[in-house]
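Lab notebook page, bench 4
Experiment: in silico fold of construct C2
Operator: M.H.
Input chain length: 276 residues
Purpose: comparison with the prior construct
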Amino acid sequence: MLILLGALLVPPGFGNRVVPFLLAFFVAVFAQISSNLANDYFDFVGQKDTEERVGFERLLTTGAVTPIEMLTALIVTSALTAILGVLFAYLEGWWVLGVGVVVLLAMVGYSAGPFPLSHHGLGDIAVVLFYGLVPVLVPYFALIGTPPLSLFLYALGIGIWEANILVCNNYRDYAEDVRSGKRTLVVRLGEKSGPWLYGLNSLLSFCCFAAGFVCASVPSLQYIWLAVILVLFGSMTRKVFIKKGATLNRMLKATNFVALFVGLSLLLFDLIGKFV
């Protein structure tokens, strides 16, 4: 997601926009860090994480850090997000603060509050919005103007693909989530829905990238990349159908690396189109 943000904010005359661009970039960085810290902290204090989890070890669960240390880190990164966001709004328009407030509320509301999004099957939608659409389209609109349809489709495709990271996580943690009362989308639809949700997201994400290429009228050679993505997405989906439990940790990592690969590829295409 962050790579895509950098990729598609390289307009003509970019040299005059370096400072606001960097502010937008680091707002996204610290917001993502804060989101991860908030998820770990609130799941722990809400007893949604247990010692029986089969996922990656969390610092609070293992005792590597204390809850107060985690909360302090969360406050610091959230404060940095807010400060940088205010500076960005000062330069680019105070309306951005409204978006920032929504982002901060969603960051906490994802795992905490009276209606935690991730505990009611809405985490997937939150990922698409706040890891795909918002961090790409809002800075673009503030810095450059109305985003082209192709950019919207790329951001949507990235967000949908990154939702597969959550699908892997929730499919792996199905039994633990059922016991703790965490009603993820996989819990609501049943354990067998995990691989099918992964496959559906893969298909939708691919369609977004393909439609974005058509809208942007990209060179024919770039469609080779699209064919590679189709094969890669298909292979990843097949593996999700045959893996269970802790073995899904590798799939989660691989899904994240694919998101990075897609973002780097779009960065390369963007730079080639502007400077070659």
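Observations: The two ends are 24 Å apart (CA to CA). The chain has twelve helices and no strands.
Next step: discuss at group meeting.
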